[in-house]
# Entry
Amino acid sequence: MAEVLAGVASVIAVVQLADKVAQYCKYYIDGVRDAPTDLRVILMEMNTLKPIFEHLSFLCESRSQVTTMISGLAQTEGPIEGCKKCVKELEGLLRSDLPQNPSQSKRRKVEATLAPLAWPFKEKRAKKLLEELSRYKTTINLALTTETTKNVETIKNELDEINGKLAQAQRQDVYRWLEHTDPSSLHHRACQLYEPGTGNWLLRAPTWSSWIDLKHRCLWVHRIPGAGKTVLMSHLIEHLKSHTRNATISKPESTIAYAYYYCYFAHRQDEADPFLRSILNQLCRRSDQITDKTYVMYKIGGKPSTSDLPDALGEVLQAFDIVYVAIDAVDESNPREQLLQLFGRLLTELRFAKIQLLVSSREYSDIERAMRAISTAISMANPYAEEDIRCHVRSLMQRNARFENWSQDMLEEVTSTISTQARGMFRWAACQIDALQRVKCERAVIQRRLQDLPKTLDETYDRIFTEVQEDERLFVYHVIHWIVFHEDLFREFSTQVRLPCSILIEAAVRSVVRENAHYGDRFYDTQVLQDLCGCLIQTHVDPVTPSSRYVVLAHHTVREYLFSLRFSSSPLGLSLVSGSPLRDAFTQMALGVIFDLGYTTRFHKSQKWSSLDVYLSILMLLRLRKDSASVVRHGTLGPRAVKLFDSSQTHFIALATIISTFSTYKFGVEAWAVEWLSPVPDTSVRQFWAILQFDASLSDRSFLLTREFLKR
# Structure
């Protein structure tokens, strides 16, 4: 630091001395006709030296980063000190006592001053000093140039970093726009169910090796419902992940990637476009670039067209040599005709030639017709798959504490019986293990159960309902209906809206109490919920709030069973369709909760799933937005739904708060955010305007609520 301060002082001193020397030279040159030419050279040197040191002075004052450079230049024998000595000596050579008599003419003063200079005796020394000064100046200029280059490079790097961050932020925006349906949560869930060692029979099959080696383009893995196709696909996807990583390491010049997608019954959608968007998103991320066509689609906004997505996919494929694409559960796309046609395009059009396609589905005739001509089929009905089921059953019992005290021979009998009768259905086998853990731990009881196993999944689900205790059956029915009601109302949103177990239990208890008050004295938790519903449901740790768990229907086949004629027409069944009595009862309950909201009710997004009041308010508004026809046609629900929009009621402000907080659900903000100018219209006018705005926000534009209001 001392060297830097000394350097700063020397820089200032050089500027001052150079200024003096320049003044002397000008004075002599202006006053003497035949002044020595060396004085002009000295003047020019000072005029070039002064800006250099003024620049150094500026850097010293404004940039702390140059302290290292100043410290180096200001060494005892350094160029700054050298310049200082040279300029100081030049100043001494030129200095003279100017005449003190002010009456003398300027010329007489100059001549009097030049007389004692004896310049010829000093000329040689002056030239020597100028040479030294030139060398020092060159060194300083070089240092300044280097520092300036560094500064420019630093600024460029900073700008590149800023632009990089900006570009990354823009890419993230495009990625989020592309991701209509995120398959990763389904993949992680399936991976958690995978039993180590199972599914490797397919990896050893010659057909798999041929597909990996590009000898054929498409593999179709098929089997009956519940055969464990999704878990197998998750294992194959993980294998593709390892394969592409290892291939890239062994052949750095090759660009090999993988992408995957899971169709899912709860999506309740045609999966063709979501599949394309997800694959395009994954490949853009892996290549770390946004192609022109993708960016144009993003800038246009809205939903990309079915014709634009394949074009964008063909463009991003140019960044790769091979892309392995896996898609699971094609049969769960609803409808699926467009998706099957898309497979044909991916496997026949030249622009998609880099894609190797892996497909899994049930054995449905339309899928078989579409896949037969373009794929190599692999059936999961084989001895290897049966051995996988045996391994799976054994693992389920080993992990379950309720089987700890069972004898080894009993465990082996269970394993052998279930794996033999499973006929390739992993789902069926898992349900039997779930049921066995609840029977009395007695050999004769267990063996009778094994002799009377249900033959199909539907029979299995029938038995689950019949074995629910009579006094708990109503609660179980309500639980199942709440789950289905939730999935139907929230299925359109691209991000999964999870139903916490705590909210489900509270909602089910409250709705059951409306039918039977005795349930109000019962206490339920997540474990009791799981025990009562058995393998009809699954609970999982919420990744956003790890301290809580959420609930879903356990499998696609459960929903199929619940909506089947077999279930709805049986004494056990209740209608699950829109407008069913139980759904209407839930809606009545939600309306009652909303009307109890007060002026002071305030909500925050973090409360969404911790407050049943907020959840039921959102649920009610979603039903009104998606199914206003059945609500309006209902004799009691219609008038109460109209009352929601009465701004004179205490619940209106609370609802407006919920709507503004949870704008994701598109409740028609205009209906709730009107600020009336004075004089404020009467209540009926304000209510009519709110209903009209809400109706206008609906896609069908039927204005049923408006008609209901006017009719009444």
